[in-house]
Amino acid sequence: MTTGKTGGTTGDTTNGATGDATGGATGNLRTLTITRPDDWHLHLRDGDLMAAVLPWTTRCFARAVVMPNLRPPVTTAAAAAAYYERILDALHPDVDFTPLMTLYLTDTMKPAEIERAKAQGLVVAAKLYPAGATTNADAGVTDLARARPLLEALAACGMPLLVHGEVTDPAVDVFDREAVFIERHLRPLVESMPDLKVVLEHVTTRQAVAFVEQGPPTLAATITAHHLLLNRGAMFQGGLNPHFYCLPVLKREEHRLALVAAATGGSPKFFLGTDSAPHPRAAKEAACGCAGIFSAPVAIEAYAAVFEQAGALDRLEGFCGRHGPLFYGLPFNRGTLTLERRACSVPSTVPDGAAGDLVPLAAGSSLRWSVVAPPAGLIRGD
Ligand SMILES: [Zn+2]
Asked: How far apart (Å, rounded) are the C-alpha atoms in residues 155 and 148?
């Protein structure tokens, strides 16, 4: 990583997770140049909404792990390939962006589908949604024991299992569902399948952080920008704020602090996954509003703010651009992204591709870091 008071220079691509600390982690840095980052957990949706939100991701990220919870979900290699093509069709031809596709595990999927997806080369992981856990998760796995042949197929081909780690048992308090899932389901799974790569997605609790830290090298986690920035008080500040409602739900401050320590601590087990999840404003501001926070328009700026606050800007590059590829066994990106310490005004709304609009994370506010446009590496051939 390159940092400086006047401008970025050539990015260092060899020094791994902790980056180049020259210039100091805090103080009066003016610019910050990092390897172009990836988003290891993203909801792009489909159709007009996908076309509307995609540029917010491609302005910064070189690759993104695209979640499969469409209606119907992406449960076959063929469906993943078709979705991949729709994403490429929606991209501006000059934009260099690679969607990394995922399969949605169901009770009826056969292990051969995972082998087919692996052979096809577009699918990098499979997503486990406990049935009913979140948006479009009705078709998810009802019993991990029944999914065992699928998990063995994943382990055999080195494909990570991505886990939405919450129990759906209504008897368990919504704020406890992640911690209970870990003890009831994930710990036994990880212990019984040491060869299976597992990413506990969008961790939200100190229990999840501790579990991942203490687990084998095959266990990692993504962390969202909103769980780093906000605690559960945000949902109730001055009234009910539907745009801060997501799943797993925001937690207490002690958990947010544990997430910040994990993200900024330099461990390669933690990497960037925005879980950016756009819903039209009308679906959020409703009597029964949808879960999901649309963070793509401010994601990298928000992560930078968190790392700066923690005095760890020298570790931003590892979290954003190194730890994920290392875990997935993919190459580092070759382009760079430069951020500048200049206030960026976050729009109140952005178009949703239809008649409505979307409300991004931090809508109407200002963040301390801005992306220098056009980002290096954004255009093919850079
Ligand atoms: Zn998600």
From this structure: 10
